Structure formats: C-alpha cells, structure tokens
Amino acid sequence: MPKIVNQKYSSDGEIQAFCEDLLLSVSQMKARNFSAKVVATPIIATRKKTGLTQEKFAEMLGVSKKTLSAWEQGVRKPSGAARTLLKIADKHPKIIKEVASL
C-alpha cells in the first residue's frame, strides 16, 4: 500500500490511517472484492412498514430526506416529537400511509 504523504498533515496519524483505509477501499472496489454491510435500523423497518419512499416518509414527518437518511444510518437521532411520530408510524403504519397520501 503506498504511503500518503502530505506536508501539512503528515504527522497526524488519524488522517494517515483514513487515507490508507480510503486507498484500500478503492483497490477493493477495483478488484470487486468488497462487501457492503447493510444494517436495517428500526427507522428503516418502520418506514418500510408504511410502504413509503424516503422522500414521502420524510415529508410526512416534516423533515428533509437528508435528515431522515441520517437517522436511518444512525448518524443522527430524531428529536422528541419525531421519535413520537416514529413510534406511531411503527404501531399504525396504515394510518401514516393514509396521512401521507392526503
């Protein structure tokens, strides 16, 4: 694996490790030797119960698709009101689908 040298960051081990991981990922993709780990989070499962797309589900919740995606990936957590709506959506997906189609 070639070593990335950047004068500004060459002493930062974390950036060096990131660059090496990135190069490894690219070489694995080129070799088609990679595995994608898809984790179904509870938010994804709830959305799928409703049968709505990310766009429609996000619109129904009053958030952007980007925010919903961050929740689904576990990058961010929904606020109190959104958590409540998600609980309702999980228990009553048909009602949520009806509301989204209004």
UniProtKB/TrEMBL annotation:
This is DNA-binding helix-turn-helix protein. Residues 43-99 form the HTH cro/C1-type domain. Pfam families: HTH_3. Keywords: DNA-binding, Transcription, Transcription regulation. InterPro entries: Cro/C1-type_HTH, HTH-type_reg/antitoxin, Lambda_DNA-bd_dom_sf. GO terms for molecular function: DNA binding. It comes from Parasutterella excrementihominis YIT 11859.
